[in-house]
Design brief:
The chain is of the alpha/beta class and 311 residues long. It contains ten helices and 16 strands. Helix 8 links the parallel strand 12 and strand 13.
């Protein structure tokens, strides 16, 4: 089988397409034939060496890429009982040190990392759910809001931000979306109650709409203390990247969301997608052989959907 490998950090040119043996599932594992997998910002950071430099990834002969999986169960390891060969599934590979990753023809996943895929959903769309969906779901849970409270979402037009808006709408939260001026209509369709252009002075603009500040912030755009200016005293700030988490000024609570494979929550998200309560946005689909081009597209930015690789 073929898999994308990184043995030297650098630009997209360091990506290698390797031929390796098909792996065998161990106890509690599934082997999934990968039909689609997104390219996420964490893949870019891993390939460039930033994750290793931050001390989050030990040296390895080869590093695999790809977190999101949509595909078909191909083999079931001992002790795995919830799925059978032929099941259409989605899953999250959250162990960066494992090789291969999801950017391969086959990947091994713990059974607890997997959920049934939403029915009648193309693989490339289903693949957009695990990483972004679980990140949004966990971030919203950490925000700890009650119906009617106010949430600020930075990067609201992105993959995680868009899911946050849709999940927040299901919880009857008032959301203020921060995005490019060109994205006002898009975030409105995703459920934003109000809109602030990212070109505005954020703290002042939000407080003009919500005197005293919002109850919580989910900072998917990773702008840190600038977004904190919109938060009320005693409110909750959810950061997605630890180094950019602001200090807990004015009695606020600052928490860092760390995503992990959770098949139970993934099943909930899959059901919402099947019911068309989550928007599964794909910008481009490329073959595995064009992984370098996929990385360039993600680095270029401005995509209003995910970049998907298909073996």
């Amino acid at each position: 089988m073929y898999a994308i490998a990184v043995s030297d950090f650098g630009g997209p040119g360091v990506l290698e397409l390797r031929q390796i043996p098909v792996p065998e599932p161990a106890t509690g594992q599934l082997r999934v034939r990968v039909r689609a997998s997104t390219v996420a910002k964490i893949d870019i950071s891993t390939r460039a060496g930033a994750i290793s430099q931050a001390g989050l990834l030990a040296p390895h002969e080869a590093v695999g890429l790809g977190w999101d999986v949509a595909g078909t169960v191909d083999a079931v390891g001992p002790g795995a009982r919830r799925f059978t060969a032929g099941d259409e599934v989605i899953g999250l590979r959250d162990l960066m040190f494992t090789f291969p990753g999801a950017h391969a023809e086959y990947v091994l996943l713990d059974e607890r990392a997997v959920a049934h895929a939403p029915r009648a959903t193309p693989h490339e769309q289903a693949a957009t759910i695990p990483l972004a969906g679980l990140t949004a779901d966990r971030a919203l849970g950490l925000a700890g809001l009650e119906p009617g409270q106010t949430l600020l979402v930075t990067g609201a037009a992105g993959g995680v931000g868009g899911f946050v808006l849709e999940l927040a709408r299901l919880q009857n939260l008032r959301t203020i979306a921060v995005a490019s001026p060109d994205d006002e209509a898009l975030v409105g369709e995703l459920g934003a109650t109000e809109f602030v252009a990212r070109t505005e002075a954020l703290g002042e603009a939000v407080r003009n709409r919500v005197p005293g500040g919002v109850d919580a912030v989910i900072d998917t755009a990773v702008i840190g203390v600038v977004a904190h200016e919109a938060l009320r005293g005693g409110g909750t700030f959810v950061a997605l990247v630890a180094p950019f988490a602001p200090p807990p000024i004015r009695g606020t609570k600052v928490v860092v969301q760390e995503v992990y494979a959770d098949g139970g929550r993934l099943a909930v998200l899959s059901a919402l997608a099947e019911a068309r309560r989550l928007s599964l946005r794909v910008a481009h689909t490329l073959p595995l052989t064009e992984a370098a081009q996929a990385h360039r597209l993600v680095e270029r930015g401005g995509q209003r959907g995910r970049i998907v690789l298909q073996p």
